[in-house]
Each structure stands twice: as structure tokens, then as C-alpha cells.
Amino acid sequence: MTTTTISSLIRFHLHMYGIWPHASNVVVRLYWIIILSTIQVFQYQYVVVNIHMDDFVEYIDAVSSAITISLLYIKLVVFWTHERTFLDLIQTMSVDWQDYTLNHNSLRIMTKGANLAHRASRWIVSLQVLSVLFYGAGVLATNASPERSELFKKGLILKMELPFNISTNFIYTTVQTFQFYHMLLIAGGITSTNSLLVTLVIHICGQIDILREKLVNIFSKCSAYSDEFTDEITLRTLILNHQRIILFAENIDTLYTFISLMMLLSDTIIICCLGFIIVTSLDTPNAAAILVKCVIFYISINFETFIYCFAGEYLSAKSKMIGSAAYDSLWYNFPAKESQNILFLIVRSQKRLTITSGKIVDLSLERFTSVVKASLSYISVLLAMY
Asked: How far is the C-alpha of 325 from the C-alpha of 211, rounded, in Å?
């Protein structure tokens, strides 16, 4: 039986990127700082040096891949600098599982949520890995075309301005292998942080469902909880549970608010770049290779934006249900002195829980549509300039 919301797959990835609180994180973080810094220097050097290159599509491709890795770098730095907040979230989740192990109804809700989080994590990881495989296959297919038969015309998976010349097939193969290996690792880092957000939101929404169920039953004489608590202790427990849910949501927002801000900005640019590449490649001889490289990548970037916005929307919708459950309960069957405490919970639940983007705007499905609209507008501008 599932006894944790964070899947073993995501936990492994969090260890691998130095996110999970551990004593040996210094070495792991130093490795990623060196690797990502080196890759980014070569990538942005290529972007600066080739700003006036003739092949505008290749240049746009280089920009999109560089921004993608920059976003991962930002995510890792944010998690590393907010290790205490992440530790509080893990400890709270562990306490929640311990508290509700002996309660059948609560354990059922938590187990259902954990299974959903595990499945969602596998889907997110699978889509990102698939996008890397197709991206690499698209680059290889493009290099196999007759016009790129010579070595110096072959492109790399990641466009870089390397400090040495690729003069032999051995050097070219070595660089390509190194880049593909780290592309898979980068994909794992991106998906681990995205899957963790989904996991945290599913867990807190499970706690909201448990609180709602208790609110419905607490004032009933046939309550399933009447054998476990006295009325006074149960009311106090519900208010404390609500406070823990609020604190948990605030910690999620603290951890992801800057990440979501940079994600919205960068993904808007990446979606615009990839959309431009897809549209302009439709009437080219190597259209199939370009589509193989970019379509799945385009879908995964849109899906990443959707994940963040849907998580914020889902959390907000769930938090509104707390006040409704409290109001619909049979609070009027109890003496005023005992039932008036529920008013504090109703008033506090009117301020919905949410995930913000840089403490500026809330993440919602409306925000997702605005990102898509902005990207399409920028694509039309690029097409007009092309």
C-alpha cells in the first residue's frame, strides 16, 4: 500500500539534483553549477556571435534551447536557496501520513491522491524524455541530408560556440554523445520540479478533502468521528488542520512563486520560437526532420505551462470548498458557544489559497490562455519580419 505522496522516481531525481535535503548535496550542487554554467556560456556565446546569421530558424532554435536550460538553472538555484521551506513541506507531509494511518476514510483519500500523484509524475517524465529523444532524432535526421554531408556543416543537438574545432568524426560523436546525455539529465531536472509541484498540490487538496469530510460529519450525531474525539477537541482540531493547510499552501507559493514567474516569461518566448520554427519549416525540403525535432518539444513546453496554471486553478477551486462545507454542515444543531467557532473557519476560507507568479498574478487557466495568446501574437510578428 502507498504510504507516501512523493513517488520514488521523483525522490530519486530530487536526490540527483541536490534538491532533497541531504548531507552530500554540496558535491552534487557543485557538479551541476559547473556543468550548467559551462553549457550556458557556450550556448549564449553562440547566440551573441551568430546574431546576424543567415539561417534565422537555426538561430531561433539556439535561443529556445538556451532559455530552456536557463530555466532549469533558475529552478535548481531557487530550490537550493529555499531548502528549509522544502524540508518543512516534506516533514508536514510525513506527519499527515502518520496522523491519518489509523483512520480508514482519511487514509483512503490520501492513498487515492498518492496514486494519482505517482501516475502524473510518470506521465510528465515520459513526455519530457520523449521530447528529448525526438529532438535528438530530428537533429540526426537533419544532419543526414545531402546538403550536410560534410562534417563542418553538421549541427549539434545543442547549438554552442565551442573553444575548439570539430575536425574529426570522433570529436563530433563525442560532443554529440555528451550533449545527448546531459539533455536527458536536464529533462529529468525539469520534470522533477514540475512533478513535485503536482505532487504537493495533490497532497494539500487531499488534506482539504479530509477537512471537508470532517466538517460535514462533525456536527452530525451519527458522525464517524464521534468515537475518536469529543466535540470540543474535534472543533479545535479542525481549526488547527485548516491552519496547517494554509501554511502548507504558503510554503508552496514561497517555493514556486519566482519559478513560476520565470517559467511564464521563458515559456512564452520558447513557445513563440518553436511555433515560428514549425510554421516556417512546413514548405522546406527537410520539413519532416524539423517537425520531428520540434513538435514534441513544443507540446512539452505548453504542457509545462499548463501544469503550473492548472495546479494554481485546482488549489484555488479546492480551497473555496472549505467554506461551503462548513456552511452546509449541521452547525445549528449544537449550542451557540460550541458552533460559533466554525465562523472563524468560514471567514478565513473566503480568502482562497493560490499559487502566484512572482507575487504579482495568480496562476490559473486564464493565465495559461494569456500565455498562449501572447505567444501566437509574437509568432505573427516574427513571421512578418521573416
From this structure: 9
Per-residue pLDDT tens for 300-359?
999 999 999 999 999 999 988 888 887 777 767 666 766 677 777 777 888 888 999 988
**Distance of alpha carbon 266 from alpha carbon 25, whole angstroms:** 27
Closest CA to 215 of 359, 115, 322: 322
In DSSP terms, 361 is beta-bridged to 357
Other beta carbons within 10 Å of 78 = 20
How far from chain centre, in Å, is Cα 167? 40
Q: CA–CA separation, 210 vs 223, rounded Å? A: 14
Which grid cell is 36? 550548467
Question: What is the radius of gyration, based on Cα positions, of the chain?
Answer: 25
Regarding pTM above 0.85, the answer is yes
- Nearest one of 22, 75, 25 to 186, comparing CA atoms: 75
